[in-house]
Every structure is written in structure tokens, then in C-alpha cells.
Amino acid sequence: MTHIHKHGGKSSESMLDKDAILKKLKISAGQNIFDAGCGNGYMSKEFSKLAGTTGTIYAIDDHKHSIKKLKGQVEGTNIKVISGDITKKTEIDDSSIDLVYLSNVFHGFTPTQVRDFLLEIKRILKPNGILAVLEINKDDTPFGPPVDIKYSPEELVKAVDLESETLTKIGEHFYMQTFVYKK
Question: Which CATH class name applies to 13-174?
Fold first, then answer.
């Protein structure tokens, strides 16, 4: 039986080292960032502060309750909230995004969703744009999905057909792999 994994609005915010993530991503004013599977938007809000008024943060998730709540919290900011599926074509313009951030979502994708997500990412990323994938370590953890659907960093690099850049430990149970899109 194939395990179907659904996040359903859960957040790993309290377990992640946001400062380590932000330091590694080196976000600067004016950047356009796509927070794919944004959940409650906690990282979108952090990205917003660093990108400033000249940058735009696109926060997308298919969990309608989280998106509705986030819309109310960020009205009048540089965060554009989108209800949608990140494995389908979005309203984002071609080659307009500097950074795509995906946190604790990749392990829940089917092979078809991986393919479709990567097609969309390649469409929206600027040349030399970055895809940052944060995942739970592939071992027994006190939370998260079963080990058999988690990705090791090596498995993640094989699954993502972009140029692997850096691997960073993020807190006790997480890692972040960055990839660069060479158009």
C-alpha cells in the first residue's frame, strides 16, 4: 500500500532554526521569493522583512484555512497570498522568481507531483535562481512522516534535476539543500 501523506495545515515553525535558514539563503532587498507550501506563512513574513518594499513574496498553499488566515494578517504588505497547488501552473510570471523555498513538503509528493513541481519551478525561476528544499532527516524522528517516504540529502539531489549547491543542517532533525537553476 502506498502511503498518502497530507500536511493539513501543520507547522514545523517551533522546531526550525529560522535564523540559520535566513543566514544561508542570503535574502536581500528587491528579491522576489516564492514560499511554496507556505502553511501559516511564518517564513513568508521573515522573507518579507528582508526583501523590503522593493521585493515581493508569493505565499502559496492549498490549505484553505491557513491561506485565509494569512491573507488577513499580511494585507497591505509585500506578501501576495495565493490559494493553490504548487504542483500545477501558478499565476507567477515566467522567469520572475529569485528564490523558491519549499519546507517539509517534498516528501509528500508523488513522482508525478515531483515532475510537475519541478516543471513549474523551472518556469518561474530566473536564470541562476535558487530552489531551497528543507526536509526532515531520513531517520526515526519523534514527529513527521514514516522513514520510508523521507528523502536523504543524496536521494533529494537525485530527485531534483537542478544543480546541487549547498547542504546545511537546520536544527536537530532537519536539513536544507539548495539548488541553482542554470537556464
Answer: alpha beta
| DSSP for 22-87, written as a single string | HHHHT--TT-EEEEET-TT-HHHHHHHHHH-TTSEEEEEES-HHHHHHHHHHHTTSSEEEEES-TT
Q: Which residues contact 106 (CB under 8 A, 6 or more apart)?
A: 114, 133, 135, 151, 156, 159
Q: With 0.90 as the threshold, say if the pTM is over it.
A: yes
Q: Which residues, listed in sequence order, are joined to residue 125 by a DSSP beta bridge?
A: 97
Q: Is there a contact between 40 and 9 (Cβ–Cβ < 8 Å)?
A: yes
What's the CA gap between 82 and 61, in Å, rounded? 7
C-alpha cell at 12: 514545523
Q: What are the two backbone dihedrals, phi and then psi, of residue 78, each rounded to the nearest 5 degrees?
A: -85, 15
For residue range 82-134, list pLDDT tens digits in order: 999 999 999 999 999 999 999 999 999 999 999 999 999 999 999 999 999 99
Choose among 138, 142, 162, 166: nearest CA to 152. 138
Parse the chain into domains and list their residue ranges.
Answer: 13-174
Question: pLDDT grade, residue 17 (50/70/90)?
Answer: confident
Partners of 180 in beta bridges: 130, 163
pLDDT of residue 94: 97
